[in-house]
Design a protein that fits this description.
The chain is of the alpha/beta class and about 300 residues long. The chain folds into two domains: about 1-110 and about 180-305, P-loop containing nucleotide triphosphate hydrolases (Rossmann fold), CATH 3.40.50.300; about 120-175, Histone, subunit A, CATH 1.10.20.140. About 50% of the residues lie in helices and about 10% in strands. The protein is built from 13 helices and six strands. The protein has a six-stranded parallel β-sheet, with helices on both faces. Helix 5 (about 135-145) packs parallel to helix 7 and helix 9 (about 200-215) runs antiparallel to helix 12. The longest helix has 24 residues, at about 255-275. It is globular and about 55 Å long.
Amino acid sequence: MKPLIVILGPTGAGKSELALGVAEAFRGEVINCDSLQTYRYFDIGTAKLRPEERRGIPHHLIDILDPDQVFSAGDYTRAARQTLAELAKAGRLPVIVGGTGFYLRALVDGLFRGPSRDEALRARLAAKEQRRAGTLHRLLRRLDSETATRIHARDVPKLIRALEICVLARRPASELFQSGRDALVGYRALKLGLWPDRDALYQRLDRRSEQMFATGLVDEVRQILARGFPPESKPFESHGYRQALQLLRGELNLKDAIFYAQRNTRRYAKRQMTWFRREAGVEWLRGFGDDPDLQTAALERVRIFLTSF
């Protein structure tokens, strides 16, 4: 068995800062588990660490995709497991860090073997939702009520995938979920979760959203569009980038763009905390990852964990 460190928590909790501390102390390398940070050019709105901020610590699975590329949880799992194998050969400690809970669960617990993507079906489902919001969730409740209870009514990508499975497999997705997964083997993970005070987290997120607009988020969006990538690209759906696009189109003024970016980011953080609360085996650390006392406690916990190998 080989050791694996996982640092998880909501956006803005200081995961990257804690990951740097762990990697620096224990000859580690960081494996990104944030779906947005896999995309090139999306830097300011994803709070991506600049290369000079990484303290010379290698970071993997960052800036590996163009904005118009599709990258599924299965794609992430294959890439991350390959990286784990390479780090094991090099004798380095893998430190997985990020807030995309579904990617993490796919990597550790594995994915079930579902049908392949059907782009024509996906387009029809997306068109239904665009014509009338909430259609896909209502349809999923009829076809697979168990899966519908686990997916937010506004999470269109997950709704489309669940319905795609139901239609193509002619079975509820929840039945396929029970048919077995390709779990990660050969590793024992220490999962450290950051759980800051919610009011303090929301204040930090509000300041960060405002700062992103003040430090060039809109110009970054202009540059991405100038490279020829369409505004329908997946990462443009994220909070901050969506409002920056609306600002450029004249649909929002700056004040409203910041307001909606802040509100939606807070809501996203709340959903992340709900997701991670159900994650098995997490040791929770109360506070932010850049707090010196919390870092000291986390490093001691990692040291004890590593002595068991």
